[in-house]
Amino acid sequence: MESNQTSNTKKRLIKTEEQAQIALDILLEESEKQNLERGIYQLLEELNNQQLDDLLDHCPDLIQQYGLERLLSGTLEIPNVGRQELKTAGLLCCLQLLIHFCAELKQHSNTYLVDATGNNNEIQNIHNSLLYITKSVCLNDFILGLLPAVVSVTGLEYYERFQKKIKTLDLEQAIALEADPEIQDHIDLMIWFVLVRLFLESVYQYVETHRKFKNTAL
Predict the structure, then answer these.
(1) 50-57 and 30-47 helices, crossing angle to 10°
(2) pLDDT at position 113, please?
């Protein structure tokens, strides 16, 4: 388990609290925040799955009824509901909440790491909810859990082609990527997915910092 965590950490784009702060400050600017949120609905539109849409609408009730960890496990059985649809809806709901919570923390305290001794109950509750989500699903499972929905839109061949294109990009190549005719079909969705990964890595990096800080203080 520890070796897997080390391996996953090495593959991360965000590895320090400072990098997380910079990334979140950029991604939570109003225009970029709207892009993250809009991308969720664009993905749903591309998937064209009414059951998934309905599950996302009812996710708060499902979380209250079953608990988030169980909802995201992929093993929960509900009559006439697909397991994959249930898990995808839960993850998309969590993504929406994390974007909202982090934007609230930034607006009220200009940081995403809350002092447990603080007196602002509203901010503390938001932070506790953020911790609850990240405790219920690890970063790697979050990203990989969203991947089937993305690949079902792009197709596996396109997704693998895109991954090869971005594997060894320098800045100039990255800028030219949007004009590459081989990957035009789903470029907006793939850029959104990369930004979601950056956002999630940044959030989880802050959570890890919080836990280390808390353990050191004990």
Answers:
(1) 140
(2) 57
